Amino acid sequence: MVLLENDSFLTELTRLFQKCRSSGSVVITLKKYDGRTKPTPRKGNPDTFEPSDNKCLIRASEGKKKISTVVNTKEVIKFQMAYSNLLRAHMDGLKKKDKKSKSKKTKAT
Amino acid sequence: MPYYQTWEEFSRAAEKLYLTDPMKVRVVLKYRHCDGNLCIKVTDNAVCLQYKTDQAQDVKKIEKLHGKLMRLMVSKETHSGSMDTD
């Protein structure tokens, strides 16, 4: 699992989407993160870790390749804008609903 | 593991589930371009909410919910212990 900076993560995510256009799926996971880098100690051992409250972890994978990044409050606005644009730009293979088209109205000659 | 039929219900249930335990809940998004569908799952490993779609109009909704939850996660929550002004 590769941990990247926010910008590199977005670049790599773009590549993942492009790679999966013909086959495969892109899986993105989002979770609140408290900044732990060490495993929780067993009972009896003091937990000398101060959980922070302002981070989230984002992971992406296309089955084989995995990438991840940590976003905190200061970066979230910028990241979220770029991330939304990315999603909207790439998730375009879905059906467009146009039942409203009055297709019965063919030009009567 | 039920798939919700309406976005409204799913969205409300997802936010509610997140607020019960932010640390436990994760959001999973799976997109398949070749099949043209998108599936979103919100779970705390006990309850699992899912929504599936193949409609382009849902992409925006899903992406908005994603962003909303992301912002909730990074904001320092000082709720449950509301700001008492003493």
UniProtKB/TrEMBL annotation, chain A:
**Where, subcellularly, is it found?**
Cytoplasm
Record GO biological process? SRP-dependent cotranslational protein targeting to membrane
Q: Where is this region: Disordered?
A: 35-54
The record ties this protein, via Gene3D superfamilies, to: Signal recognition particle alu RNA binding heterodimer, srp9/1
Family matches, as InterPro entries: Signal_recog_particle_SRP14, Signal_recog_particle_SRP9/14
UniProt keywords (A-Z) are: Cytoplasm, Ribonucleoprotein, RNA-binding, Signal recognition particle
GO function term, MF aspect, one: 7S RNA binding
Instruction: Show the Pfam families listed in the entry.
Output: SRP14
Q: Which GO terms describe its cellular component?
A: signal recognition particle, endoplasmic reticulum targeting
The entry assigns this protein to a family as follows: Belongs to the SRP14 family.
Oligomeric and partner information: Heterodimer with SRP9; binds RNA as heterodimer. Component of a signal recognition particle (SRP) complex that consists of a 7SL RNA molecule of 300 nucleotides and six protein subunits: SRP72, SRP68, SRP54, SRP19, SRP14 and SRP9.
What is the recorded function of this protein according to its Swiss-Prot or TrEMBL entry? Component of the signal recognition particle (SRP) complex, a ribonucleoprotein complex that mediates the cotranslational targeting of secretory and membrane proteins to the endoplasmic reticulum (ER). SRP9 together with SRP14 and the Alu portion of the SRP RNA, constitutes the elongation arrest domain of SRP. The complex of SRP9 and SRP14 is required for SRP RNA binding.
Its recorded name reads Signal recognition particle 14 kDa protein
Source species taxonomy: Eukaryota, Metazoa, Chordata, Craniata, Vertebrata
UniProtKB/TrEMBL annotation, chain B:
Give the matching SUPFAM superfamilies.
Signal recognition particle alu RNA binding heterodimer, SRP9/14
In the record, biological process GO terms are: negative regulation of translational elongation; SRP-dependent cotranslational protein targeting to membrane
One GO cellular component assignment for this chain's record is: signal recognition particle, endoplasmic reticulum targeting
All residue ranges annotated as the SRP9 domain in the record: 5-73
Alphabetically ordered keywords of this record: Cytoplasm, Ribonucleoprotein, RNA-binding, Signal recognition particle
Q: Where in the cell is it found?
A: Cytoplasm
Q: Which Gene3D superfamilies match?
A: Signal recognition particle alu RNA binding heterodimer, srp9/1
Q: Which GO terms describe its molecular function?
A: 7S RNA binding
Could you tell me what this protein does?
Component of the signal recognition particle (SRP) complex, a ribonucleoprotein complex that mediates the cotranslational targeting of secretory and membrane proteins to the endoplasmic reticulum (ER). SRP9 together with SRP14 and the Alu portion of the SRP RNA, constitutes the elongation arrest domain of SRP. The complex of SRP9 and SRP14 is required for SRP RNA binding.
- Would you identify the family this protein belongs to, as annotated? Belongs to the SRP9 family.
- PANTHER family (alphabetical): SIGNAL RECOGNITION PARTICLE 9 KDA PROTEIN
Q: How does it assemble?
A: Heterodimer with SRP14; binds RNA as heterodimer. Component of a signal recognition particle complex that consists of a 7SL RNA molecule of 300 nucleotides and six protein subunits: SRP72, SRP68, SRP54, SRP19, SRP14 and SRP9.
Put simply, this protein is called Signal recognition particle 9 kDa protein
Q: Which organism is it from?
A: Pogonophryne albipinna
